[in-house]
Write a structure and sequence with these properties.
By secondary structure, the chain is mostly helical. The chain is about 55% helix and about 0% strand. It is elongated, with a radius of gyration of 19 Å.
Length: about 110
C-alpha cells in the first residue's frame, strides 16, 4: 500500500467511512519504514484517520525481520539441509537482506 496513489487511498477511506457498508475486508500490507516515520505520507495520514474511526475494526499485524538464527532455520528448511551445513550461506543472506523474508526468498530462487 505504500505505493498506492492518493485516489486509491481516498477510495478506501470512503468505503471505510460509509455507514451503509456492513461487510468489508481489506487485507493490505505496507513497508512500515517507508510510511510510519513520514507524517506527510498519504498512507500514514489515512491510517491515522482509519484508526480514529471507532466504528471500524482496524487490526495491524507488524511483521519483523528474521533474526540470524531464524534465517539459518529458514535457509536450512528451504534447502532441506541441516542447520550446520547452511550457516555461512544463511549468514551471508542475512547480511544482504537484513532479515527481510521477501528478499531472502528472492535470494534463494
Amino acid at each position: 500500500l505504500q505505493w498506492a496513489d492518493e485516489r486509491s487511498i481516498k477510495m478506501l477511506s470512503d468505503i471505510l467511512a460509509d455507514p451503509t457498508v456492513k461487510h468489508f475486508l481489506l487485507l493490505g500490507s505496507y513497508r512500515s519504514n517507508e510510511v510510519d516515520d513520514h507524517p506527510d505520507h498519504v498512507l500514514k495520514q489515512a491510517i491515522d484517520q482509519w484508526d480514529k474511526q471507532s466504528s471500524k475494526h482496524i487490526y495491524k499485524i507488524p511483521l519483523k525481520d528474521l533474526t540470524k538464527s531464524e534465517t539459518i532455520e529458514y535457509v536450512a528448511t528451504t534447502l532441506r539441509l541441516d542447520d550446520s551445513k547452511v550457516e555461512s550461506l544463511a549468514d551471508l543472506i542475512h547480511q544482504k537482506t537484513k532479515g527481510n523474508l521477501f528478499f531472502m526468498m528472492k535470494s534463494l530462487e
